[in-house]
Amino acid sequence: MSLKSIVMLLSLFSLPFVAKSAPSLPEVSVKSELASPVVLAGSQDKNYLKISLIGYPLEIEKRSPINLALVIDRSSSMAGDRIIDARNAAIAAVNMLNSDDTLSVVAYDSGVEVVIPATKVKNKEQLINQIRASIEPRGMTALFAGVSKGINQVSKYLDKDQVNRIILLSDGQANVGPTSNSELADLAKIAAKKGIAITTIGIGNGYNEDLMTTISGYSDGNHAFVEHSSDMEKIFVREFNDVMSVVAQDVEVAIKTADQVIPVRLLGREGDITGNKVKVKLNQLYSNQEKYVLLEVIPAKGSNAETKPLADINVRYVNLGTKQVDSINQKIDLRYSDLAQKVREEQHDEVLVDSAIQKAAIESERAVKLMDEGKISEAKEVLNQNAIILESLPLNTEVAKEKADSSAKNNKDMLNKIDSSDKNTWRKELKEQNYNIKTQKN
Fold first, then answer.
1. What distance in Å separates the CA atoms of residue 35 and residue 41, rounded to the nearest whole number?
2. Positions in the chain short of pLDDT 70
3. Rounded to an integer, what distance in angstroms lies between the CA atom of residue 242 and that of residue 249?
4. Cα separation of 294 and 269, whole Å?
5. Sheet with strand 29-34: strands edge to edge
6. pLDDT recorded at residue 404
7. Does domain 64-244 have CATH number 3.20.20.70?
8. DSSP 3-state helix, strand, coil percentages of the chain (rounded to 5)?
9. Torsion angle of alpha carbons 56, 57, 63, 66, nearest 10°?
10. 25-59+247-339, what's its fold?
11. What is the pTM of this model?
């Protein structure tokens, strides 16, 4: 080998090594922020800590398998268009699934029947024929037995790496077997512990919306009020958009507040507050959608220009994209100032608006109770005050003002409907609206 060739060879080894970057793994975006990250020195005004979780983008062909049970009311009150529309919605569900998915269909009346035992969706025509042949109206409403059997069917193929879901349809009151909210709530808690979310769909004006939202709430499912059964298929499509876009499950948000910081209450979601520790569980998180935990706190006192820790935050979840458990830790501090203008300038409008909307939803629940007691004028005043508070928030950005105004309008619309619509319809619409606000359903 010549000297020139040796020099050229050595020069190649001297070139810098450029490593190819590995593709980034999908992960949930977590953001912790305060409504007022700067507060007046010496004060202890209530503040609001928001932990936002946003699901990563998901290509539909990479979605996780679905393990679904349809639990369908076929009591006598479902006769006519309702049972036809329920069958069509169930058939639409079959057509939206693929061979990697698992489907079971449970029908309940005075008793319960497993129309389709949990099975892979391979022969769609056969499944559709079974639905058409078996979903006919009869008997009463054994809702508890229907949900129990639905949990049993999903549990046969339970897997944390797939989406485990029950969709429950009913147009009536539970009147066979256990019927109380607490008994059905216990079932929902069992489902939640297994990682099964229950979506409830109430049809018409006869179902128990308190019961249905309770079932959904404990399992972190969705709830929909379908006034006209012809809209049922559209609701199913919307539900499947959620089911097919789940990117994270078994989500747990743990908050530990700093010394002298008092956690007062959670707004919207249920959770446990023990001393300075707060724990909230969410069953599932969807692609490109925000879910959040909102905690009202009383901060410690501080001096001008001082910074103090407010809370440590840990978020854990099962990442369906990587099949791993992800853990994210964040810290959030609070700053103090003597200048009210500084406090106003640093305000996070979005957190302030979200806290106001959640508090308005709590008040709207009070309006429902007042209506139940026949106190119509008091219920109207609650909704009117909600609108006034939302419209008068001291906001700096137009986006936040639009969001507050939109929520104020929703309260005004429900106020105006009190006198112009059926009371059952009004109640169900407001319960659905409140539920969607609390669970941040888009």
1. 16
2. 1-23, 442
3. 13
4. 8
5. 29-34, 47-54, 290-298, 262-266
6. 98
7. no
8. 40, 30, 30
9. 60
10. Immunoglobulin-like (2.60.40)
11. 0.89
